[in-house]
Amino acid sequence: MAGLICVGSALPAAGADRPTVFWASDPVRPGEAVMVLGHALGDKPTVEVVRLNDGPCGEPSTLQAASAPATQPAPDAPGHAANIAWPGGGRAVEVLQASEQSLKFVLPADLAPGLFAFRISTAGQAAGVLNRPRVWWGQGDLGVSASPGGWLALYGLNLAEGGWADPPAAGATQASRRSVVRLRGPKTLTLEADCSPSTARLALPADLPCGQYEVSLHRGWGGELGWSAPVRFEVRERSAWPATVFNVKDFGAEGDGVKDDTAAVQAALAKAGQAGGGVVLVPRGRYRLSEGLTVPRLTVLRGERRDLACLAWTDLADPSEALVRGANSFALEELTLYARNYRHVIVGDHPGRATDRDPRPDAGDVRLLGVVVRANAYRGHLTPAQVDERFRASLKHSTGGGDTVRLGGRNIEIRDCDLYGSGRVLYLSRVRGGLVRGNRLYNGRWGWYCISGSDGVVFDHNTLVGADLMSTGGGLNCLDGSTSSQNVFFGHNRLSLMHGWDREAMTTDAGGELYFGKVASAEGAKLTLAAEPTTKRPEWRGAGVFILNGRGAGQYRRVVARTERTVEIDRPWAVAPDGESELAITMFQGHYLVVDNEFADCGAMQFYGTSIECLVAGNRGARMPGFRGLGLWYHGYQPSWFCQFLDNELAAGNYYHFDSVAEASLEVFGARRAPYEGPMNRCAVVRRNRLLGNAHVRVGGTSRDVIVEANRVTDADQGVFVSRTCAGVLTRGNTFENVVREVVDEEALRLAALERLKRFMGRQEPVASWSFEALTGKRFPDGSDNGFAAAVRGDARCVAGGIRGHAVRFDGEGCLAVEEPAVFNAPDITVSLWVKPAKVTGRRGLIAKRFAGAGAPLVVSQNGAAVGFESCEEDGRWTFNFSSRPVLKENQWTHVAVAVKQGEGITIYADGQAVAEKKNPALRATNSEPLILGREAWGGEPPKGNTPGFYVGLMDEVKVWTRTLSADEVRQEYESLRKAQQAASAPASRAAAP
Question: Do 102 and 150 have their domain in common?
C-alpha cells in the first residue's frame, strides 16, 4: 500500500469508529487527484495538505522490514511505519466524492513536486504520506542474494526523482536519476543507486561483510520521513563451482555431424559428475545425438561459441522426457541445440509444494547463457496426417505443446538466449530470484509462455514472438497450483504476432477460491471462519484474504497458516471485520510492474482476476485490444484493487479478434455474480495515457472509486465511457480531439434520460410513428411531430404496396435507426406495426432497442412464423423471454402489437387478438442504445449468437406509445387499418383464384 502514517500513538482498536486510512493513491503530481480508501471517513470531512520539507534525511526509523523472511509471505504494505505528529502548516483542499469508505481531493497545482502529508478530519483525524518510496523486493547478482563486489537491484514505486510522480529535469535521463540506499547489518553504509521510477540498481563494495541486511531507499525528498520501509536481504560469498574441464573429444566425440556422439558426450558429463562437477567443453563441431543428455550438479555444458558448436538430435521415434535434463545447479552456455521430434528441450527440477508426494526443495540454481535452440517437430516432408499426429502428441506433454525451457526453484538465470520450439517456449514454476533478460523467445504451434507461482522475477529486454499462426501469448499466473504469485518486473520487452487461442500477450490467471463467506470472529492475527471452506485444498499459505464488503472493506492480508476454520494472517487488521463482513480467500497476485513494453498484433495485456497494487506504465500497443484491469468471479471471487495505468499509449486502435473487429480500450472492470454483488474492482487510477485511432478509456461493471485523469483521446467514437453500474468515478482534465462523444457517463446519461423520459411518459397519443410514405434525405420522418426520425442504415427502401400508400422494404442487409436513447426505455410501452415477411424462417429483428448485443428493455423479433419478445432484468437476467404460436405468413400482412406493463407482464397480439402472454413482476433494464427497426443483435438463418438477425420483407405503420394499450385499444388499432390491409391483399387474392 501507499506508505501511510497514522496519527496517534497506535493503529485504531478493532472496535473504534475513528477515521482510519487503508490506502492512498500515489505517485501523484501537484495538480493531480488523490484517492483515499479507509474507514469512518465521513461524508463531510475536511482535508489538509502540506509538502514535507526536504531537510537532512537522517537515519531510517527502526521499522519492521516490509519483507518478512523467506518462510513468510511478504506483507502487502509498509504500514508498520512509525507514527508522527502533524507537521503543521497545511492548507485546506476541496473534498470530492466523500463517503464513509473513500474520498478524493486534488493536490494544489502551485506546490513543488515532493512528498506530501495529508490529514483527514471528521469525528477524529487520520493522516498519510504521498510519494514515499516503496521497495517491494530486491534481487542480486546471486538471485535471492548478492555477493560482496556484486550488485543489488530494488523494485517498487517512487524510487527516483523524475519518475512517474514528477517530470525529469531538462536534459535528465533515467540513468542520471540517483537515489541513496542505506544498508544496515554487519556494516552500515550509504550507497548511491541508478534509478528509474520503479527500479534502483547499486554496486556493492568488494569488502562488504556477509550477513543479513535491512535495505532502505531515499529519493531526496521529505527529510527523515522520506525513507522507504526496509526490505531484508542477504549478502553471501559466491560459491564457485568446480572448474575442471572435460573435453568431449577426449571421450571419443567426432563432431562431424555423421557419427553418433551420444555416448561420448554423456561419458564426459558422467565423468564431471563423478568429479563433483566441472565444465564439459564442446569444441567447434556438429555433434549428432540420438538420446537425451543428463547434466550433473555443479556442471556447465559449454560450447566453444554458440555459432561454432551445436548439438543436433536425430528424429527420435520415442524421445525421452528432455533432450537436456538436470536436477539442479547446472548450466548451459554458448551452444546451439537442434532437434526434430522431442517432448521438452531443457528441463530442471520443479520445487513442488510441501504437500506434493515428491517435493524438490533444492530445485533451481540453473543458468542458461547464450543458448540457441531450434527445435521443430514439423521439419521435413510430413504429410498432413503426420503433422496432426505430432501436434496431438505434443499436447500430452504440456498445454501448448512441449516446452523449450522448463525450470523452477531459486536463482534461475536465462540471458542472451535465442529459443525457438514447436510448442510452449518457457515454463517457470515457483521461481525465487529469477532473471530472464535479453532473450529472443518464440512460441510454437499453440505455444505460449508461463511464469507461475513467482516471488521475485525480472523478465526484461526480451523479444517474444509468435512463430506460428496458432501461437498465443502467455503470462504471470498461479496455474502450477501455487497460492500466490508476486514481485515480478515485466519491462522493456517487445511482444508481437500472437494470433492463436485467446491471444493474450500478457495475462494473469489463477482461477478458484479457498473460501467465501463471513467470519465468526477476528482477534488480532487470527480469523475464525463462519462456514466450511469451499475447497479441500490443504495448502493455503500465501493466499490473499480480502474483506470485500461490510466493516473493514478494502483491506487485505496474507495467510500464514490454517487449521480447519482457523486462519492465521500476517498481521492484524487496521479495522477488524465483524460478523456481517464478507471475506474472500483466494490466490494472491500482486506487485506486478509492467513497464515500457511494446505490444503489437496480439491480444490484451490484462490482469485477469486477483491483481493487487500492480502498475502498468509507459507501455505502447498497436493492433491489440488494450490494457485491462479485471476484477472477476473466476471460479471464485478475485478482486482487482489499487492498480494504476500511467503514461501508456494505444495507437492503431482497431483490433481484429476471432472474426470481428472492435476498438481498443484501456479498461477497468469489475464482474458481478451473486451472492456477492459489490465492487470487484477498487481504487484504479487511469492517468496521462494516450489513446489514438479509435481507442478509448472504459470503466465498467462493479468498479468503485476510479480516477480517470489527464488522458488524451483522438480520432474515436467515444473518449471515456463510464458504466452506470460503477460508483465514485472521477473524470477530470482529459482532452479530446476528433472524438464523437467525449465522455459517456451512463449514470449521468441515465439521470438525464429519466428527466427527458418524464416529458413523454403516459401520453395518450403515440410518441413516435412512421408511415414510410417518403424519404427525406436518408430519413423517414416521425409522424408524431416529436422529431424521432428513422435513419436508413444499409439497404432499406421506400416502396409502393404498403398497407396504405408506401412501406419500407428490408432486403436482409439494412435497418432503420432512431437515435433516441431515453424515451423508448419507458417502463410501460406498446409497439404496433404491420409486417409482410418475405421469409418465415430464421430469427429476425422487427423492432428492438438492442443493436450491439447488450442488455435491453425491448426486443420484438420474428422467430420463424412466431413473434418473440425479449428483455432482461436490471441485473442482466433474461427472464422476460417468450414467443407466440406461429402467426406470421409468408408474403401476407399481419398486424403485430406488444403491450408491456411494468411490474405485471407482457402480451403479444396478432391481428388484434392476444396470442401469447407472460407475467413477470421484475423491473426491466434500460440502455442508451437507439431504437432499431428491421434488425436485432443476433439471429439469421440458422440463428447464431455472433451474427445479427436482419428482417426480410415489408413493414408499415409503426407506432410507439409510452403507456400500455388495453386489448380493446389494440383491436381498434388493428381494425382502423384492416380494410386497407384487405384492399392491399385483394389483388393478390384475385390473381390466385382459379
Answer: no
